[in-house]
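INFO  loader      accepted 1 record
INFO  loader      residues=168
INFO  predictor   begin
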Amino acid sequence: MKALGLRLTAMTAVALVLLPAASAAAKSTTHVGSNPSSAFCVAIENEQAGVSKNQSEVKKDMASGQLSLVKKASLEIYGIDMQAAQNVQSALGSAPAKVKAAVAATLKFDATLKSIIKKSKTLAGLTAAETAAAGNPKVTNAGQVLTVYFNSQCDTRTTTPKGSVGGA
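INFO  predictor   done
INFO  writer      dumping tokens
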């Protein structure tokens, strides 16, 4: 379900990017966010785990072509995601106002998606409505704000120079 991926972009496009390990000869650079063990980072990690756990079920149900299965699985995953997003919101503490606003926008987007799912009469209609909702500039901006904040706070990745074995 394309919109599932788009929703995840709003909160969990902030997913970690792990690059392959470098060869022994190549020098690696490790970037660690400024506060990777913060309540915010832990809440994001928990959200990703909760959504990932059910994503394969949604994909299987989507492949079935049965609207009732897709709606049931989607509502379940959005329920989990909305709870996790509320946990993220509670963990923001002293985060900048624009980050708090971005999380609030994703919660509103979750509520919109839940309504779209419930009202959908066809798979094509469901996908079209979710895609249209995900294209809202407030949603895409929220995703960008959260990605930047996540990277500054939580992101941990190792990169290797271009041209080296396993390099980016």
